Amino acid sequence: MLSLNKSTNDTSITLDLLRAIAAQMVCVGHALYFFTEWRPAGPLMQNVGVLLFFALSGFLIAYTLTERSKNPAYGFWQFFIERFARIYSGLVPALIFVAVLDGAVIYFSGDPASVPSYSGKIFLDNLLMLEGYRGINLITNLHSAVFGSAAPLWTLVVEWHIYMFVGALFFMGAKPRLIPWLIPVALFFGQTSTHFLLGSVQDDGVGRGLFMLWLGGAYVFFAARTAIIPYLPAVGLTFISAVCYVLLTPPQKEYDFRTYTVLLIFVFAVVMASQAKHFITSARVVSIITFFAGYSFTLYLIHYTIFWAIHVLSPGDGTMKFICSILLSNGIAAVIASQTEMKHKSLARFLKQAATRYRAEPSEQMPPRSATDQG
């Protein structure tokens, strides 16, 4: 039986490590394109990082819904609060940071066109996760551009809509009494989600099938619940799948269903290997991995804006610029996340308590029932 107990196996901390690595891959990959002329012969690491995020997300959300719904009190509202706290604890400060830095770039460059789509309306649209909205936008004009230089935000919208769509479908099945309330949720958030079953965000195929990959990550969770693979074979499968993925995936062809399977096999093998052993027991090592994973989301959201500012205000390539831009992005992300993203669980607890108090207020205001009213 699959377990994410940190005291019995390495799976939980290994997933944190993969999340941290994925964020660094996106950051370093974009830095290579901004500040160097070197182009890899294999898959672009920034795209692979995005794909890893989606595969891991499918795995972890499947785990969350399956395990936490065992508590009868856990429903869509609790799921929504947890996802809201997780996403918006990073999104809000990141959007503010982007607005300030992009504004500085416009001011110092003297060119408003140096930052695309920079307006209050687009900022609000991005806050509401409407950029790139698919489906009924033709009727309601909900579609919006990505705010300013925050290019990575397009993937976050896809992720958020998948969360809400899958969550609504899950609880419609688990708690049928919620169906009338959750049908509108599923219809609204299903527009973008279902587009990315087979569709892409651009004509060149970028983003193709991200929801399908996400569902593949969820399938990995269900497969891992019953599978038992010894440590050495699992490590071997991890290595073989990683090598095959690199060999089979040419640059700019990462969003390809044919290679998604290999990537999912890699994630499955990593989970199986980490289930079999408990090597990562050092508190220092665990804290380091947790730290880097703790600001990975913020790094993902803001690094591109930092690179863009450097690129506009100080054009040119260089190894030092490449290294310093990565270090600067990591440092700023860690500082911001220390007071925001890293406290998303506290925010979720606060919101749940506030919601509980709000729902309890009407009954607390009612007069006590008399003895003859009991039963």
Automatic annotation (TrEMBL):
<feature type="transmembrane region" description="Helical">
    <location>
        <begin position="260"/>
        <end position="280"/>
    </location>
</feature>
<dbReference type="GO" id="GO:0009103">
    <property type="term" value="P:lipopolysaccharide biosynthetic process"/>
</dbReference>
<feature type="transmembrane region" description="Helical">
    <location>
        <begin position="12"/>
        <end position="36"/>
    </location>
</feature>
<feature type="transmembrane region" description="Helical">
    <location>
        <begin position="205"/>
        <end position="224"/>
    </location>
</feature>
<feature type="transmembrane region" description="Helical">
    <location>
        <begin position="178"/>
        <end position="199"/>
    </location>
</feature>
<dbReference type="GO" id="GO:0016747">
    <property type="term" value="F:acyltransferase activity, transferring groups other than amino-acyl groups"/>
</dbReference>
<feature type="transmembrane region" description="Helical">
    <location>
        <begin position="292"/>
        <end position="313"/>
    </location>
</feature>
<keyword id="KW-0012">Acyltransferase</keyword>
<keyword id="KW-0808">Transferase</keyword>
<feature type="transmembrane region" description="Helical">
    <location>
        <begin position="151"/>
        <end position="171"/>
    </location>
</feature>
<keyword id="KW-0378">Hydrolase</keyword>
<protein>
    <submittedName>
        <fullName>Peptidoglycan/LPS O-acetylase OafA/YrhL, contains acyltransferase and SGNH-hydrolase domains</fullName>
    </submittedName>
</protein>
<feature type="transmembrane region" description="Helical">
    <location>
        <begin position="231"/>
        <end position="248"/>
    </location>
</feature>
<keyword id="KW-0812">Transmembrane</keyword>
<dbReference type="GO" id="GO:0016787">
    <property type="term" value="F:hydrolase activity"/>
</dbReference>
<feature type="transmembrane region" description="Helical">
    <location>
        <begin position="48"/>
        <end position="66"/>
    </location>
</feature>
<keyword id="KW-0472">Membrane</keyword>
<feature type="domain" description="Acyltransferase 3">
    <location>
        <begin position="15"/>
        <end position="336"/>
    </location>
</feature>
<feature type="transmembrane region" description="Helical">
    <location>
        <begin position="87"/>
        <end position="108"/>
    </location>
</feature>
<keyword id="KW-1133">Transmembrane helix</keyword>
<dbReference type="InterPro" id="IPR050879">
    <property type="entry name" value="Acyltransferase_3"/>
</dbReference>
<dbReference type="GO" id="GO:0016020">
    <property type="term" value="C:membrane"/>
</dbReference>
<dbReference type="Pfam" id="PF01757">
    <property type="entry name" value="Acyl_transf_3"/>
</dbReference>
<dbReference type="InterPro" id="IPR002656">
    <property type="entry name" value="Acyl_transf_3_dom"/>
</dbReference>
